[in-house]
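Section 5: illustrative case.
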């Protein structure tokens, strides 16, 4: 795995060990600003603010992504689709096909795995 930034111990637990932050605690959960979301480890662009929606799940949710890889995840007795950064292979969260938008997809992403950059006017 490529690491290009110094990440916190919580980011390492989530992004490198496949952990999950507690629901409703992430700093980006209620972010409504316009901009883009990047991988907190390598800086790769992952989501736009236009793809973000309130799913009520407790984690930032998006209905579209870029520069991610999807892989089957059968951990913890569940069948899920893991979302990882295409560049550095960091764990970001999971994809569910139960979204409330027209894509019907919900990328359920840990806030600690993201860095937000607000759009400049």
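Designed sequence:
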């Amino acid at each position: 795995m490529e690491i290009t930034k110094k990440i916190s111990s919580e980011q390492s637990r989530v992004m490198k060990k496949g952990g999950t932050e507690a629901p409703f605690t992430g700093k980006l959960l209620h972010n409504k600003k316009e901009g883009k979301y990047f991988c907190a480890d390598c800086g790769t662009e992952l989501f736009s603010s236009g793809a973000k929606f309130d799913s009520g799940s407790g984690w930032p949710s998006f209905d579209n992504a870029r520069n991610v890889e999807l892989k089957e995840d059968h951990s913890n007795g569940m069948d899920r689709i893991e979302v990882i950064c295409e560049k550095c292979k960091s764990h970001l969260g999971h994809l569910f096909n139960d979204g409330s938008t027209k894509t019907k997809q919900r990328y359920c992403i840990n806030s600690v795995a993201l860095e937000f950059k607000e759009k400049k006017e």
